[in-house]
Design brief:
binds magnesium ion, binds thiamine diphosphate, disordered N terminus, six-stranded parallel sheet, alpha/beta, 817 residues, seven-stranded mixed sheet
C-alpha cells in the first residue's frame, strides 16, 4: 500500500537550527519564485527568447535536496531550479545567464548558453578532460527536452551504485562511489509519465533493483492537456500499485504526498533516501497538488485552459504560500512550557521576502550586464572598423549607414555584429586598403571564436579523443590457426573483461548463452552476472543503462541484438548520448560502446541496414562498420582507450566465416576515422563497408578476367570518415568513383559521396559521373531471391562497374544490353 508520512525528522536538531533551516529553505523558495517571475518578464520584454520555469514546484524540491547527498545523481527536467539552488549548484545570476544564453561556461555553468534555460547540469569533468571526484559533489546529469527522456539514463545512473557495491575489483575507483551508497534521483512531470519510455524505465529499475528515487511532480496538466487525457485513473501512483514491493518480492516503495506539505515532504524524502540507499530498492514518490502559477511556459497563458475554480485553487494551494502559513502558525512547546515560534510576526517574513526580491533583481542586472557588455565590446570593435573603412571607401555612405544602425541597437546580439560587418565587406569588394584587411581579419576571428562558442565539443577534444588512439597491429602466433569469426569476438571480450574491471556487458541474451551468436560464450560464468548480463527486451533502456553507467566512470558495452531493432534505442542515442558532450560544453561525457550486428540476413526486419538514418541522427557518436571480426575486436580495443561513445555494427554473416586467430587479444587496435585500401587497382575506386565489401571483393576477381582492375576502399568508419583523405588519393589515381552499400538510395552512400566529392574535393579528379549502388528503397524481401532482388548483388555490382567503363571506353567495353 502507498505509505503516507506523518512525522517530521526534526527531532535531532535544536530548535534554533531547525528554525534557521526552515527560514533558509523558505528564502531559497522565494528566490526561486522571484527568478521565475522576473524570468518571464525578461522573455516578454525580449531580452531572453524563451522561458520555462519551476514556479509552483518549489517546496518538494527543498525536501528532495535535503535527502540528496554527495555522490548522488539527479536526472530530471526543466522544473527543478529550486532543487539546483538548494543543493548549491545554481544561483540567481547563473539562472539569468542561462536565460540570456551567455556563452561562457564559467558564467553559465549549465551549458554555456547552448541549452535554453531550465536544463540543468553539473560538471563531472575538469578542464583537462579528466573525471572529477564525483563522490565529493552533488551531481546532476544534463537535462534534455524530450519528455521522459531523462528516464533511461536514470536507470544506468542508479545501476552504477549497484555495480560499485557488488563488484569487488571496482573498489579502487573511489572517486565515483563509496560502496554504492549513491542514489539516483529522477524527476518527471505527471503528463510525461504517459511516454512509453517512462513505463519501460520503471519496469527496468524494478527488475534491476537499483537505488533510484523517482519523483513525479503532479500539477494535473501537461501544457493544456488535463490528467484525464494523460493517465488512467488520473493517478500515476494508483496505476503503478502493482509495482509495490511485498514480502519476498522485488518492486518499489511507493509514497504519495501533497506538494505543499513541507513537513510531510521532508519526512517522505528522508525515508525514500534511506530505503534506496541502504537496500537498493527503488522508490516512487507521487507528489500531488502542485501548481503552475504562471502557466506552462512563456509561450502561452494558462487562463486559456484552466477554469476559474482551478485558478482559484492554484492560488490557495500555491506551495510557497502554504509553507508561509505553516511558518507563521508554527508553535512548539519546550520542556519548560515556553511556546517556541519561528518568527514573531508577519513582518519578519515580509522583510525576508523583500530581501529575496532585491537579491534576484540585483542578480538579474549583474547577469544582464555581464552578457551584454561582452557583446557591446564586440559592437564597439566592429563600429570602429566600419568607421575606418567608411572613410576610405567610395561606398562610405552605405557603410556609415550600416555602422549607425549597428550602433543604435540597444540590445545587440552577435548576429547583428557579424551581419553588419559582412554586409559592409561586400561594399569593399573592388577596393584595397589596410583597413579592409583589418575588417576581414575581424570577421574571420569572430567566426572562429563563435565556432568554439557554438560548435565545439561535439566529440571529445581531450587527449583521450578516440581519433587520437593509434593503430596497433594484429599479431599472429607462429602456428597459423583459422577459426570462426565469433571465436575472435569471444577471445577479445575475454581479454577486455580481464583487463578492464569497469567494463560491463549486457543485452538481450548476452548473459547466460553469451549472445545469440556466442561472441560472449562462457564469459558470464567466468566474470559473474554483474559484469555480463541478460536484460529484458527493452532497447531504449538498454541504451539508457549504458549512458548512466558511463556517466559514473564505468565502461559499459550495451548490446542491441540486431541492427534492425536499434531504432527503439535510436531516439535516446540521438537526443541524449549524441548531445551529451555538446550540450554540457564538454563538462559531461558518457563513453558508451553500443554493440550490434546487422546487414544481410533475410527479411524485412532481419536484414536492414538503415545506415543513412542512423548516421544522420547521431552526430556526436562514432559509427563503425567493421568488415570482419578481427576489425571489430580492434575497434572495441581502441574505444576502450578513448573517451568517446560509439556504435559498432558487426556483420551478421561474419560469425561463422573463417579468420586467422590473433595472438594479442585486447591489444590490437583498429584506428577510427581511417579507411583501408584492401585492393589496389587502376580503373575505378569502389568504396564500400560491412557485408557488401565481400561481394565487391568477389566481383573484383570476375572483373579482372575481362581486364577491369578495381581499387577497393573499406570505409570501416562512417563517423568520422577518412580523416586523412586517403580515398581522395585513390580517386586521384583511378579518376572514377563508385560507392556500394545496402542502405536505401540516397542513404549512407550519399553521405560518403558528399564526403569524398565535396569535403575531400574529389570532384576535380573525376573522369566519369560519380555513382552509388545501393539496395532498393523498400525493405528487403525474405529469402535468397528476396535478397537478390532487394540488395545489390554481385551481378548488379559487376554490371554497374562495367557500365561505367563502357561509358569511358565504348569500343573496349561493348554494351552488355
Ligand atoms: C517528446 C516530447 N513531446 C512533446 C514535448 C512538448 N512538451 C514540453 S513540456 C510538455 C508537457 C509536459 O507536462 P508534464 O510532464 O506534466 O510537466 P509539467 O510541465 O506540467 O511540469 C510537452 C507536451 C516535448 N518536450 N517532448
Ligand atoms: Mg504537469
Amino acid at each position: 500500500m502507498p505509505t503516507t508520512a506523518t512525522k517530521s525528522n526534526t527531532k535531532n536538531l535544536s530548535f534554533n537550527d531547525f528554525k534557521n533551516e526552515v527560514l533558509n529553505d523558505y528564502k531559497i523558495a522565494r528566490i526561486s519564485r522571484e527568478c521565475s517571475l522576473l524570468g518571464r518578464r525578461e522573455v516578454l520584454t525580449g531580452k531572453a527568447k524563451f522561458g520555462i520555469f519551476g514556479d509552483g514546484k518549489e517546496v518538494p524540491q527543498l525536501a528532495m535536496a535535503k535527502a540528496f547527498k554527495n555522490g548522488d545523481f539527479r536526472s530530471g527536467y526543466y522544473r527543478d531550479q529550486t532543487f539546483m539552488m538548494s543543493i548549491g549548484e545554481l544561483n540567481a545570476q547563473q539562472f539569468f545567464a542561462g536565460l540570456y544564453a551567455h556563452t561562457d561556461i564559467n558564467i553559465e555553468p549549465m551549458s554555456a548558453g547552448r541549452q535554453m534555460g531550465g536544463h540543468f547540469s553539473t560538471h563531472s569533468i575538469d578542464d583537462n578532460g579528466d573525471w572529477k571526484n564525483l563522490t565529493l559533489q552533488k551531481n546532476s546529469s544534463a537535462d534534455i527536452s524530450p519528455t521522459a527522456s531523462q528516464m533511461p539514463r536514470l536507470i544506468g545512473l542508479a545501476q552504477a551504485s549497484k555495480a560499485y557495491r557488488n563488484i569487488e575489483a571496482l573498489n579502487e575507483k573511489s572517486h565515483f562511489s563509496v560502496n554504492g551508497n549513491e542514489v539516483a534521483w529522477g524527476t518527471i512531470g505527471n503528463a510525461s509519465t504517459s511516454e512509453g519510455i517512462f513505463f519501460e524505465s520503471i519496469n527496468a529499475a524494478g527488475v534491476l533493483e537499483v537505488p533510484m528515487v523517482m519523483s513525479v511532480w503532479d500539477d494535473e496538466y501537461g501544457i493544456s492537456v488535463h490528467a484525464k487525457h494523460q493517465t488512467t485513473k488520473e493517478s500515476i501512483s494508483e496505476i503503478l500499485k502493482g509495482f509495490q514491493k511485498e514480502e519476498g518480492t522485488n518492486g518499489y516503495e511507493i509514497f504519495v504526498v501533497n506538494g505543499w506539505d513541507y513537513v510531510q515532504l521532508i519526512d517522505v524524502y528522508a525515508k525514500a533516501s534511506r530505503i534506496a540507499r541502504e537496500n537498493h530498492t527503488p522508490v516512487l514518490i507521487h507528489v500531488k497538488e502542485l501548481t503552475q502559477p504562471q502557466g506552462h511556459s512563456t509561450s502561452g497563458s494558462h487562463e486559456r485552459y484552466k477554469n476559474i475554480e482551478r485558478l482559484k485553487w492554484e492560488k490557495e494551494f500555491d506551495c510557497i504560500e502554504k509553507m508561509r502559513e505553516w511558518i507563521l502558525n508554527f508553535e512548539l512547546e519546550d520542556g519548560n512550557g515556553n511556546i517556541l515560534k519561528f518568527i514573531d510576526d508577519n513582518q519578519e517574513l515580509i522583510s525576508l521576502e523583500k530581501e529575496a526580491k532585491k537579491e534576484v533583481a540585483a542578480a538579474k542586472r549583474t547577469a544582464w550586464n555581464a552578457f551584454i557588455n561582452e557583446i557591446k565590446q564586440e559592437v564597439t570593435t566592429a563600429t570602429r572598423l566600419l568607421e575606418k573603412v567608411a572613410i576610405k571607401s567610395s561606398n562610405g555612405t552605405f557603410i556609415t549607414k550600416i555602422k549607425n544602425d549597428l550602433e543604435s541597437l540597444i540590445e545587440p546580439i552577435r548576429k547583428d555584429v557579424l551581419t553588419a560587418s559582412r554586409k559592409a565587406l561586400r561594399y569593399l569588394k573592388d577596393e584595397n586598403f589596410p583597413e579592409k584587411i583589418e575588417l576581414q581579419e575581424f570577421i574571420k576571428k569572430s567566426i572562429s571564436e563563435a565556432s568554439y562558442k557554438y560548435s565545439s565539443h561535439l566529440t571529445s577534444e581531450t587527449t583521450k579523443a578516440t581519433v587520437n588512439i593509434s593503430e596497433k597491429l594484429v599479431n599472429y602466433g607462429s602456428e597459423k590457426k583459422i577459426v570462426d569469426g565469433r571465436i575472435i569476438m569471444r577471445e577479445n571480450f575475454d581479454a577486455i573483461l580481464n583487463n578492464y574491471p569497469e567494463v560491463l556487458i549486457f543485452g538481450e541474451d548476452a548473459g547466460k548463452i553469451g549472445d545469440v551468436n556466442q561472441g560472449l560464450e562462457g564469459l558470464q560464468q567466468k566474470y559473474g552476472t554483474q559484469r555480463v548480463s541478460d536484460t529484458g527486451i527493452r532497447e531504449a533502456t538498454i541504451i539508457g543503462q549504458g549512458i548512466g553507467l558511463a556517466m559514473r566512470g564505468l565502461r559499459p558495452i550495451a548490446e542491441i541484438q540486431y541492427l534492425d531493432y536499434l531504432l527503439y534505442g535510436l531516439q535516446i542515442m540521438s537526443d541524449d548520448l549524441a548531445t551529451l558532450r555538446y550540450r554540457t560544453f564538454g563538462k559531461q561525457k558518457a563513453p558508451l560502446i553500443i554493440r550490434t550486428r546487422g546487414h544481410r540476413l533475410e527479411g524485412i526486419w532481419h536484414s536492414g541496414s538503415p545506415m543513412g538514418g542512423i548516421i544522420n541522427n547521431i552526430r556526436g557518436i562514432h559509427v563503425l562498420v567493421p568488415r570482419n571480426m578481427t576489425k571489430a575486436a580492434g575497434f572495441y580495443n581502441t574505444l576502450l582507450q578513448g573517451d568517446d561513445p560509439a556504435l559498432v555494427i558487426e556483420c551478421l554473416n561474419g560469425y561463422r566465416l573463417k579468420e586467422e586467430l590473433p595472438s594479442n587479444f585486447g591489444e590490437f587496435t583498429t584506428p577510427i576515422g581511417v579507411v583501408e585500401n584492401i585492393r589496389q587497382g587502376k580503373d575505378i575506386t569502389v568504396v564500400s563497408y560491412g557485408s557488401t565489401l565481400r561481394i565487391v571483393q568477389e566481383v573484383a576477381k570476375e572483373l579482372m578476367q575481362i581486364g577491369i582492375d578495381i581499387e577497393i576502399i573499406d570505409a570501416q568508419s562512417l563517423l568520422p570518415f577518412d580523416i586523412n583523405h586517403d580515398t581522395l588519393k585513390s580517386v586521384a589515381k583511378t579518376n572514377r568513383l563508385l560507392i556500394v552499400d545496402e542502405d536505401v538510395p540516397g542513404g549512407a552512400s550519399a553521405y560518403l559521396l558528399q564526403q569524398i566529392i565535396e569535403e575531400q574535393d574529389g570532384y576535380q579528379y573525376l573522369d566519369s559521373k560519380p555513382a552509388t549502388l545501393t539496395a532498393k528503397a523498400h525493405r528487403p524481401a525474405y529469402g535468397s531471391d528476396g535478397d537478390y532482388f532487394s540488395k545489390p548483388s554481385a551481378e548488379d555490382i559487376f554490371e554497374k562497374i562495367y557500365e561505367m567503363m563502357h561509358e569511358a571506353d565504348p569500343n573496349k567495353y561493348k554494351s552488355l544490353y
